[in-house]
Amino acid sequence: KDEFGRVRLVTGVSLSGTVPGRRVGQTxxxxxxxxxxxxxxxxxPFVGIGYFENLGIxxxxxxxxxxxxxxDPDDAVVVNDAAVRYLNYGTPQNAVGKVLGFGGGxxxxxxxxxxxxxxxxxxxIEPTVFLTNPAVAGFLAxxxxxxxxxxxxxxxxxTWSTLYPDA
Length: 167
Prior knowledge:
alpha+beta
């Protein structure tokens, strides 16, 4: 319950440019430890602060994106464990601090998250470089308390229509 005695039905919220089950684009980049002209490619979804925590994706090393680091949208990336293997960085801990070069400039790996099936369980988990940019968030993910999902959806709809009556 919250401070007003109401039952809390939503326990987590995050924004993203995609959601599990939807394909994401690829990005090209250079990687520390490889020749500058050797171009790598990986999936590159945009995710918001709290995305990994909201979806229950464990952090293996480092950290995820945070409001405490206002330069994250321009300077940071989070990669999955498949990307660590793809880039031959050995362990997730070794990958933290490595620099990847993108068209918009270099970004530092600040964290490594566990592999998860973004698509079908039948598909191989791909190397993924997560970027953060609030401007490309088209999806809102909510984590609901166990119980009455219909009541939670109704409450979310009511709150949404109050806050954003024209959307």
